[in-house]
Amino acid sequence: MASQSSNVVILPPTNQLRGLYSIIRDKDTSRSDFIFYSDRIIRLLVEEGLNHLPVTEHEVTTPTGALYQGVKFLGKICGVSIMRAGESMEQGLRDCCRSVRIGKILIQRDEETTQPKLFYDKLPEDIADRFVFLLDPMLATGGSASMAVHVLISRGVPEERIFFLNLIAAPEGIKMFTERFPKVKIITGVIDQGLDEHAFINPGLGDFGDRYYCI
Ligand code: PRP
Ligand code: URA
After folding, report:
1. How many angstroms is it from 8 CA to the middle of ligand 1?
2. Which pTM was predicted?
3. In the predicted model, is pLDDT for residue 171 greater than 60?
């Protein structure tokens, strides 16, 4: 099972989280509810992602004059969204990391072949010096996310500085992705049963981009 990899982190399946997924998976959920409740899960994913960044010891003095042995984040981060659906996760990242830099990669799955195609990328110039939160809500075959990671590596980002945040993963995609990129950390909300004959995630939630942006 893919979740055995120490580099796959799954959000704890609390009743709250299961309730949120029940809303966004429901085919009768309105677009505005889909956006609102997806955004809540996205926020949880971003918060969990931040837990995995390295920190260094940092001592502060409180107003009582006491010393507090705390920590602070080590290094700079940026977000990279896989367009279109990944853009839905940008605001959640901004809500936690003020004025965070965000790059974009436009990758689309061909609807016939399900193979990903790379159309465009625009990334922060100093991305090689940053921790990267790669954003895409759906990990199905893993083709799109793998293509995005190839782009990041080609710009000098070390694998171990990439954190892939996603809402729903298929076991097939997790397997393929973790075999290719064992050092990339996946932070996902849930791993579903598998892919159907159209390479859609089952039970899944349908087409995330369409539900968030269009229908
Ligand atoms: C969806 C999704 C991922 C990809 C996952 O995007 O947002 O990018 O499919 O599938 P894979 O793991 O099999 O590659 P899609 O290409 O449908 O475009 P969209 O973001 O415009 O909806
Ligand atoms: N993309 C989606 O939006 N949903 C899936 O189930 C698979 C790919």
Report:
1. 20
2. 0.96
3. yes
